[in-house]
Amino acid sequence: MNHKLLLGTSNPGKIKEFKQILQDIPYELTTLKEASCNIEVIETGKTFLENATLKATQYAHATKLPCISDDSGIEIDALNGRPGIYSARYGGPDLSDSERVELILEEMKNISIEKRQARFKAAIVIAWPNGKILNSEGTMEGIINFSPTGENGFGYDPIFLLPEFGKTSAEINPDEKNKLSHRAKAIRNIIPLL
Ligand code: ITT
After folding, report:
1. Which domains does the chain show, CATH number per domain?
2. Ligand 1 centre distance from Cα of residue 63 (Å)
3. Which amino acid residue places its CA nearest to atom 31 of ligand 1?
4. How far is the CA of 157 from the centre of ligand 1 (A)?
């Protein structure tokens, strides 16, 4: 029987992507819910890597399972790198993904197309209950569009335009996103080390 690997995230969009990107590894993937893990990890880190490490180590310790965690977000040049590590909570914890997208569009309404560069970043950490840790990072470059389009993905995907496709990361096929995303790159770098 395969060993278990815990997906250390409560974000359904990340769970879906993890399952697709990790589909060929010889591990049985399990979720926090399936492992009955309901501890709350407080993200006190100052970087994606620090926060991904907090999540993976605490979930691995709590469940006695190896755990893969992701901390990620979007950095927008015209907003001096915001929302960055605060992407999930930008504008306050009560906003929905689409309200956060609207907030960004409003803040950027006077910014011209040439100055709308942004990137998604992800830090991936795998932690084992015995203290072993692996980590990796990935980036995907794009441009903040002027309005949301597309139904795929999650979070800021509807306004993240990929110039090489002329489409947002919510419009491209999920298989495509999972080949070139920040998360896919970081995970692909770590898999050979497993
Ligand atoms: P976990 O901590 O449980 O994994 P979370 O959603 O709180 O879930 P983060 O703290 O890493 O995770 O926040 C990441 C946020 O960045 C996420 O909620 C999205 O708003 C945004 N984000 C990250 N990757 C993204 C992607 O591939 N597409 C769209 N938005 C993304």
Report:
1. 4-193 (3.90.950.10)
2. 22
3. 155
4. 11
Among 7, 33, 87, 182, say which to mutate for ligand 1: greatest number of ligand atoms within 8 Å of CB. Answer: 87
- Judge whether 53 and 135 are in contact, CB under 8 Å: yes
Whether 71 is catalytic: yes
Tell me which H or E stretch contains 176: helix 174-180
Contacts of 138 (CB under 8 A, 6+ apart): 121, 122, 124, 181, 182, 183, 184, 185, 186, 187, 188, 189
CA angle 76, 81, 83 (to 5 degrees): 80
26-76 residue pLDDT tens: 999 999 999 999 999 999 999 999 999 999 999 999 999 999 999 999 999
Cα distance between residue 38 and residue 110, in whole Å: 43
CA 83 – CA 87 distance, rounded (Å) = 5
